[in-house]
């Protein structure tokens, strides 16, 4: 984790870029590019690790969101993915289709003033990366 307690101010919320329209029109691909390792770590570092994490409370499956954001920021991807699987059988799907803007990201303490932590995109990143690294052992 960063030693900068104002990381959420210094680093804006960044969503992954959209794939070009001409590609999306002719291929069956996801709309957004995946985060790079650096992007995922930087965005995870914006989490305040609130004492009473509203994001976790608002999540229908009560994911341990601040915990796996911390692990993702530390580069401990496999552990973060294992933790996300403890409360959710398909976090790799939820990272794509769950309405985070109304649930976890909508209740993020940073949401109104600084832009919520990109929880869904980080969830997608850690689980995709873990599957890439370890196959189906998760």
UniProtKB/TrEMBL annotation:
Record's keyword annotation contains Oxidoreductase: yes
Class in the EC hierarchy, top level: oxidoreductase
Enzyme Commission code: 1.4.1.13
Keywords: Oxidoreductase
TM helices/strands, residue ranges: none
GO molecular function, one term: glutamate synthase (NADPH) activity
Gene3D superfamilies in UniProt: Alpha-helical ferredoxin (1.10.1060.10)
A Pfam family per the record: Fer4_20
Domain 4Fe-4S ferredoxin-type: 38-69
Name used for this protein in its record: Glutamate synthase
């Amino acid at each position: 984790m960063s030693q900068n307690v104002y990381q959420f101010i210094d680093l804006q919320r960044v969503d992954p870029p959209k794939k070009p329209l001409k590609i999306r029109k002719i291929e069956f691909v996801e709309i957004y590019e995946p985060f790079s390792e650096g992007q995922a770590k930087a965005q995870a570092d914006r989490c305040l690790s609130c004492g009473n994490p509203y994001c976790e409370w608002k999540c229908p499956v009560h994911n341990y969101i601040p915990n796996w954001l911390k692990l993702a920021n530390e580069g401990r991807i496999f552990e973060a993915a294992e933790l996300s699987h403890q409360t959710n059988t398909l976090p790799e799907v939820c990272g794509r289709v769950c309405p985070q803007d109304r649930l976890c990201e909508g209740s993020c303490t940073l949401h109104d003033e600084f832009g919520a932590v990109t929880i869904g995109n980080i969830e997608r990143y850690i689980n995709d990366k873990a599957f890439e690294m370890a196959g189906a052992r998760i």
